[in-house]
Design brief:
- By secondary structure, the protein is mostly helical.
- It contains 15 helices and two strands.
- The chain has one domain (2-231).
- A two-stranded antiparallel ribbon has the order 1-2.
Length: 309
């Protein structure tokens, strides 16, 4: 019940942004929901199962292109988003059965290769995807202000759905099995846990959330190209956010997304010419000095005994 109450408070706080914030605040809130959704999705396979996946950019780009191609052919955007999530889930299940027997850096390299393979496929399929020239998404026929609010609430809804899924999974048999796999996969296998099924389920669930967010992003920006949606940063950023907030936790990915966006905006404002280097140094320092995330630091602070006079 505590988790659901926190979820309700999060929704209420975000829903107030269009009422009291300007267009800049609305844009930041939309990006924050996008980041939080990516981090929550990655947390299923990377945080709960302990498999360092770098395939997030592959699922993001796949969802964006499936949705864009369908919308270009006249499919309504909501149906195109759903189709993108379904396609990525099937793709992740097939790829997962092939690479999830690998562990550690071997799995990380294999998942990273998926990104490059999909990027090359999209680049060469010019008749369908536009190749390197990219593809335009049809306009929604609404004003800029209405469209900005629409995509904010859509991103927020997707984040809430993924947060609710995280709460359900973490308290279910699937979450228990994933935590067992993360701690000792061989022991979990001996105890009778179907580790292959659990890992493929987490990988597919992660792909589903990322693909729909990628599809929504494509409709939001109205033009995509392979270097944009298959950017490796979409694989790195969610990992960093989850590390900042706390691996395998429920609200840690959201906290990490807020922190990462705040750092990103702060660095952009004050260190424009060297923002990438400064942001990278700050992230490395935070990860080194807060290996369990800010959530663990807060819990330790709360448990600290009070000083008696």
């Amino acid at each position: 019940m505590k988790h659901w109450l926190w979820l309700a408070a999060f929704v209420a706080a975000c829903a107030l942004v269009p009422l009291f914030g300007n267009n800049y605040a609305l844009r930041l809130a939309t990006i924050m929901c996008l980041y939080a959704g990516l981090a929550l999705s990655w947390n299923f396979i990377g945080g709960m199962a302990g498999y360092p996946s770098f395939a997030t950019a592959a699922f993001f780009g796949l969802g964006a292109y499936v949705s864009a191609v369908l919308q270009a052919k006249g499919v309504p955007f909501v149906a195109a988003w759903a189709a993108a999530g379904f396609a990525a889930t099937i793709f992740a299940a097939l790829i997962g059965m092939a690479i999830l027997h690998l562990k550690g850096h071997y799995f990380a390299i294999a998942s990273l290769a998926v990104v490059e393979v999909l990027r090359e496929v999209v680049n060469t399929a010019e008749g369908l995807t536009g190749g390197g020239m990219g593809i335009n998404i049809p306009l929604q026929g609404m004003s800029a202000d209405v469209q900005a609010r629409l995509f904010f609430f859509v991103m927020l809804t997707m984040t809430v759905v993924l947060l609710a899924a995280t709460i359900i999974v973490s308290t279910s048999k699937l979450g228990f099995g994933l935590r067992c796999i993360s701690q000792n996969e061989d022991a979990a296998d001996i105890l009778g846990i179907n580790t292959t099924f659990y890992k493929v389920a987490a990988f597919s669930l992660s792909a589903f959330g990322v693909a729909i967010i990628g599809a929504i992003y494509a409709s939001w920006v109205q033009y995509i190209e392979p270097p944009d949606v298959f950017d490796i940063l979409y694989s790195v950023k969610p990992l960093v956010m989850v590390l900042l907030g706390g691996l395998g936790t429920i609200f840690g990915p959201v906290i990490g997304a807020v922190l990462y966006l705040a750092l990103e905006e702060l660095v952009w404002r004050n260190f424009l010419t060297v923002h990438a280097a400064v942001l990278g140094a700050l992230i490395v320092a935070l990860v080194l000095f807060l290996p369990n995330g800010v959530g663990a630091m807060f819990r330790q602070w709360r448990k600290r005994p009070a000083v008696q006079s």
